Every structure is written in structure tokens, then in C-alpha cells.
Amino acid sequence: MKEILKKRNLLEAEAETGNNTFSDILSKVDSNVVRDTLMLLRENESESGRIKVGYTTIYPQCFTRGHIHAPLEEVYFITSGKGIMEIEGEKFEAEAGDVVYIPFAKFHRTENPYHLPLSYVWITVKKEG
Ligand SMILES: O=P(O)(O)OC[C@H]1O[C@](O)(CO)[C@@H](O)[C@@H]1O
């Protein structure tokens, strides 16, 4: 007997495949480090010169390279989608509505193994002095 669907969540839905889909385009480039950042506030635009704000989107099946910035602490506020955050080797899922704190000098990387873009606002604050 046929199983009739009662409910599906957008985040778990399968993506259509084929020509000109994002996964098709991604398969033609040599890296899955595909993300865009819009700069919302640069350090030289704030009074303290210590705060920076951006809005990043990590495309489906993509990730950031990961990095450390010793003099900066950082907060992510996930605005849509979900993904995997890695902080100093610890991995956990983060989704829209979550706030993630990244302490000074900790390696952090973000993965989006899903089919929807993952977007978040991030704020870095530089140590005083
Ligand atoms: O250079 P990577 O590791 O790919 O990181 C990019 C990510 O880091 C950020 O600088 C935020 O820390 C954003 O541009 C983006 O979320």
C-alpha cells in the first residue's frame, strides 16, 4: 500500500537535480567554500573602532574555510536555515534563532550540509588596548 505523506519540513526536503540547479553549478567548481558576506558595519565606522558587523550566507552543501582571530570575540545570530558550527573541534547543530558565541582565539568553521542557504548576522568585538 502507498504511504501517504502527512508532513514534510522544508529543511529536510530533497532538492531537485539537473541542469542549472545550484548543485549542478557547484559540481563544476573545485571548492565547496562558497559563501558571501555583506559588510554592515566596519571597525572604522564605529566610535570605539572595535566593533564589526556582517551578514553571511553559506550556500547549500557549502562551508567556510574556518579561521582564528586572536584579538576578536564574536557572536553569530542565525537568521535562516540550519548548519553545523565547529568551535575548537567541537561540532554542534545551529539553526534560525540560535545565538552562538565564539571566544577569543578559538578556531571556528561553519558547514551547511542542507539544501537551504544558511544565513547569519555576526558581530566581532576587538579586545581593548
Ligand atoms: O574565511 P572563512 O573561514 O571561509 O570564513 C568566513 C566567515 O567568517 C566571517 O568572517 C565571520 O567570522 C564571515 O565572513 C564568514 O562567516
Automatic annotation (TrEMBL):
Question: EC number(s) for this protein?
Answer: 5.3.1.9
SUPFAM superfamilies associated with the record: RmlC-like cupins
| Pfam families reported for this sequence | Cupin_2
What name goes with this protein? Glucose-6-phosphate isomerase
Keyword Glycoprotein attached: no
Q: Which residues cross the membrane?
A: none
Q: Which organism is it from?
A: Atribacter laminatus
What InterPro entries has UniProt attached to this entry? Cupin_2 (IPR013096), GPI/OXD (IPR051610), RmlC-like_jellyroll (IPR014710), RmlC_Cupin_sf (IPR011051)
For this UniProt record, the keywords arranged alphabetically read as follows: Isomerase, Metal-binding
GO molecular function terms here? glucose-6-phosphate isomerase activity; metal ion binding
Q: Residues in domain Cupin type-2?
A: 59-123
